[in-house]
């Protein structure tokens, strides 16, 4: 019992005690309600000073608020911000795409991000524990999140492995993807045909890095270089998360901040390059008609959804290590806007560099076509009279070539197609949209070969990709390990090492020669639809099953202020409706789009779309089914009482926290000496009827607030116990009516 408690003081002074249990509890210093599953406070006629009581549930905590914010930023800001957002921006109307993206960030992204932060911080458990607690019948939500985290972690770390390989290849000059390799055939030296048909960077990616096969059906065996890179990637991830947030929090100081240093360096360097302004102007020139297309809104919603890491469990896991009174509303808004502005910054960098590359490619096109025209002039296919007098072939500009091209096309209208001349328009080069690995490992690497001191910039770029990927992987691994550690008493280090070892061996699927196609498969099918279903069930379980009004009251008790009423309507109506539309659009797109992948055909030296074979189709839909399988299984099992509701530990934890300082009151004789001035004297009935109040509130605590069995219609009640008042059974809780 605390040394400064009233009971202890009275025992030491041997004075008569005239207060009842309710009096004692009303005037006692606040117990550790932060570590409890419920929010219980004390009320008295005079204000009692509150003291900070450390959480005693043994749960680790962040060293500082900055560390926590960097962890959330590192998890949400990932590779998609660099190679997915710029592509969507270019594809969907340039600057006009930012309008639907920002609107959907406000009505879907921030509210759902806030919801996940709040439930994790309040209940202080990982994804499985949180949803078991909110609604045991929907406890499969957390298990599905864990399954999706596992699938995503398997292939995401492969991408980090690719970045590690390119990182080490960058320590040489010239860069190994600068030129096509020369094949020697006796005394003859010829350029590698596959490289000559494509480009040096494309050849290096598909042949020297992946050594890819032409179809997914051809395994081709393990790629040794990629296997070693994957091993290094998993060792780095394991070391980063082996101590939980104690180690990953420190890593985040670097892995979250370093990418911004690189992005700003690239932006400054990019703006100094010829053509960079052309790229940025092309990027942000709005095509307003695009805003009326439903596809643009669907892709914006999908990007908002995945950019914040909703549904993965990492957001909930990170926030569960917070103090219960942390202002998670501020965190949600801050991290969301940091994510948004990071995407804008990355888009500026990408299109500044791609604008420079487009100018290089355009000048190369002009040079090659000028040689063709000179050949036609020398062979009298074209007349010298067609050449404008001011045109100088030794210093032919793009504007001169455009004029020359127009003249020849007009004069040689019938036979122009046989000449094989290209228009060499800068706009055409800028419209060549690339995303994903095509942007990072082909387009961007090609642009960097033209940089002065290109190895330095290449090292910086791929080190940035490694750190971006590492931040997301730390969040993904935390989303896996935290629920397991909450449910089972296992050693954190042992669990982490075992997870990484198993993941490495499972990841060998992605480092065979056809592994790139499996990365595409997992990216398309393992996360998209299952995560959307997970998040809409999260939304429904809180706003409809648990009750949006009750949740708003819990937030007020936790934060000390009531969030805007807009959140009530967004959680209750707007977000579920938007998510239902998004799920419907995703299912329709999957139904009308033929499932397939872009295969690299060695003979043609180009990508070619191929449909999945039957066994691969089964694998695609198995990924969706396995990820979503826990949802119906847990619901059925708990509906028919085939498994426990998973909330007993939380209930016991609460009871222990509330009763630990008054456990001695169970003894009847000791209770009499405390409850009355004389043995047998009845306590004051007025004090015994005094209700518990939530901190900072004048309203009695809702007995069903945050009840772990709310889905079953039962709630824990916590009333003052008096010898004259018999204990009553829990009052059934009905689903909340918000009308």
From TrEMBL:
<feature type="binding site">
    <location>
        <position position="81"/>
    </location>
    <ligand>
        <name>Na(+)</name>
    </ligand>
</feature>
<keyword id="KW-0479">Metal-binding</keyword>
<feature type="binding site">
    <location>
        <position position="74"/>
    </location>
    <ligand>
        <name>Na(+)</name>
    </ligand>
</feature>
<feature type="transmembrane region" description="Helical">
    <location>
        <begin position="300"/>
        <end position="321"/>
    </location>
</feature>
<feature type="binding site">
    <location>
        <position position="77"/>
    </location>
    <ligand>
        <name>Na(+)</name>
    </ligand>
</feature>
<feature type="transmembrane region" description="Helical">
    <location>
        <begin position="68"/>
        <end position="86"/>
    </location>
</feature>
<keyword id="KW-0813">Transport</keyword>
<keyword id="KW-0812">Transmembrane</keyword>
<feature type="transmembrane region" description="Helical">
    <location>
        <begin position="494"/>
        <end position="513"/>
    </location>
</feature>
<dbReference type="Pfam" id="PF00209">
    <property type="entry name" value="SNF"/>
</dbReference>
<protein>
    <recommendedName>
        <fullName>Transporter</fullName>
    </recommendedName>
</protein>
<feature type="binding site">
    <location>
        <position position="472"/>
    </location>
    <ligand>
        <name>Na(+)</name>
    </ligand>
</feature>
<feature type="transmembrane region" description="Helical">
    <location>
        <begin position="146"/>
        <end position="168"/>
    </location>
</feature>
<feature type="region of interest" description="Disordered">
    <location>
        <begin position="676"/>
        <end position="739"/>
    </location>
</feature>
<dbReference type="GO" id="GO:0035725">
    <property type="term" value="P:sodium ion transmembrane transport"/>
</dbReference>
<feature type="binding site">
    <location>
        <position position="339"/>
    </location>
    <ligand>
        <name>Na(+)</name>
    </ligand>
</feature>
<dbReference type="GO" id="GO:0016020">
    <property type="term" value="C:membrane"/>
</dbReference>
<dbReference type="GO" id="GO:0015824">
    <property type="term" value="P:proline transport"/>
</dbReference>
<dbReference type="GO" id="GO:0046872">
    <property type="term" value="F:metal ion binding"/>
</dbReference>
<dbReference type="InterPro" id="IPR002438">
    <property type="entry name" value="Neutral_aa_SLC6"/>
</dbReference>
<keyword id="KW-0325">Glycoprotein</keyword>
<dbReference type="GO" id="GO:0015820">
    <property type="term" value="P:L-leucine transport"/>
</dbReference>
<dbReference type="GO" id="GO:0005886">
    <property type="term" value="C:plasma membrane"/>
</dbReference>
<dbReference type="GO" id="GO:0015293">
    <property type="term" value="F:symporter activity"/>
</dbReference>
<keyword id="KW-0769">Symport</keyword>
<keyword id="KW-1133">Transmembrane helix</keyword>
<dbReference type="InterPro" id="IPR037272">
    <property type="entry name" value="SNS_sf"/>
</dbReference>
<keyword id="KW-0472">Membrane</keyword>
<feature type="transmembrane region" description="Helical">
    <location>
        <begin position="226"/>
        <end position="245"/>
    </location>
</feature>
<feature type="transmembrane region" description="Helical">
    <location>
        <begin position="456"/>
        <end position="482"/>
    </location>
</feature>
<feature type="transmembrane region" description="Helical">
    <location>
        <begin position="333"/>
        <end position="354"/>
    </location>
</feature>
<dbReference type="InterPro" id="IPR000175">
    <property type="entry name" value="Na/ntran_symport"/>
</dbReference>
<feature type="transmembrane region" description="Helical">
    <location>
        <begin position="525"/>
        <end position="546"/>
    </location>
</feature>
<dbReference type="GO" id="GO:0008021">
    <property type="term" value="C:synaptic vesicle"/>
</dbReference>
<comment type="similarity">
    <text>Belongs to the sodium:neurotransmitter symporter (SNF) (TC 2.A.22) family.</text>
</comment>
<dbReference type="GO" id="GO:0032328">
    <property type="term" value="P:alanine transport"/>
</dbReference>
<feature type="transmembrane region" description="Helical">
    <location>
        <begin position="257"/>
        <end position="280"/>
    </location>
</feature>
<feature type="binding site">
    <location>
        <position position="468"/>
    </location>
    <ligand>
        <name>Na(+)</name>
    </ligand>
</feature>
<keyword id="KW-0915">Sodium</keyword>
<feature type="transmembrane region" description="Helical">
    <location>
        <begin position="566"/>
        <end position="592"/>
    </location>
</feature>
<feature type="transmembrane region" description="Helical">
    <location>
        <begin position="612"/>
        <end position="637"/>
    </location>
</feature>
<feature type="transmembrane region" description="Helical">
    <location>
        <begin position="98"/>
        <end position="119"/>
    </location>
</feature>
